[in-house]
Amino acid sequence: MKNIGNSNIKKTKIIGLTGGIGSGKTTVANYIISKGIPVYVSDVEAKKVMEFSNIITQISEAFGNEIINPNNTLDREKLASIVFNKPEKLKQLNAIVHPAVKKHFENWIVINKEAPMIVKETAILFESGSYKDCDAIITVTSPLETRISRVLKRDNTTREKVLQRINNQLSDEERIERSDYVVVNENFDNTKKQVDEIINLLKNK
After folding, report:
1. Is the distance from CB of 38 to CB of 115 less than 8 angstroms?
2. Which end of the chain is more exposed for a tag (fewer CB within 10 A), N or C?
3. C-alpha span between 66 and 86 (Å, rounded)
């Protein structure tokens, strides 16, 4: 395993889990959790980190006090409207949030250091550079129309907006090329079989 600065965690394998919007990577993550393997769901944890008082202070200094609610929490809608389709603003926000999430993840690894294997689930595994800390990478894929259908059911959005989000992410081909394992998530029973096979392979490595 690559050393990320703590000699006590060398025994723990770090597995990256990624996939595009609508691929079903959260469903796969939840199934892995049900197998007793700790999973760090980056979106969920990043939301927690963004409510840390020191992070709120940094974000308000960068984007103004109007993104702070009266109860000192983040107004996520206002913040989203500021960074939406503005790459420089998004880069500025990520420069605050990503290092804090990275530190939070490293602390989480220490908490779970007795586990032989842990999983980091994130849509931007490659874009953020997180893949460098992983011993193996799993990409979850699904047919395009299946992905669109899932997102339309889940979010209050349009087909055009879903396609725009898909086109703004890495392609499945790029992810697959850089991954060790691929899960095709269309039929959940079949997906579970694929995940079980991968977990067994990883445990025996």
Report:
1. yes
2. C
3. 18
pLDDT at site 85: 77
Q: What is the pLDDT of residue 201?
A: 96
The Cα 84–Cα 89 span in angstroms is 8
CA distance 148 to 163: 7
Residue with tokens 């259908």: 149
Residue spans of the domains in the chain: they are: 11-38+117-205, 45-111
Contact present, 181 and 141 (Cβ < 8 Å): no
Give the residue carrying structure tokens 């409510």.
51
Q: Cα torsion for 196, 24, 131, 86, to the nearest 10°?
A: 180
Contact between residue 11 and residue 116 where contact means Cβ atoms under 8 Å apart: yes
% of residues, the chain, pLDDT over 70: 95
Record the tokens describing residue 148, joined without a space: 């669109």
Buried b (16+ CB within 10 A) or exposed e, 100-128: bbbebbeeebeebeebebbbbbbbbbbee
Q: What distance in Å separates the CA atoms of residue 183 and residue 28, rounded to the nearest whole number?
A: 9
CA distance 66 to 155: 26
Fold of 11-38+117-205: Rossmann fold (3.40.50)
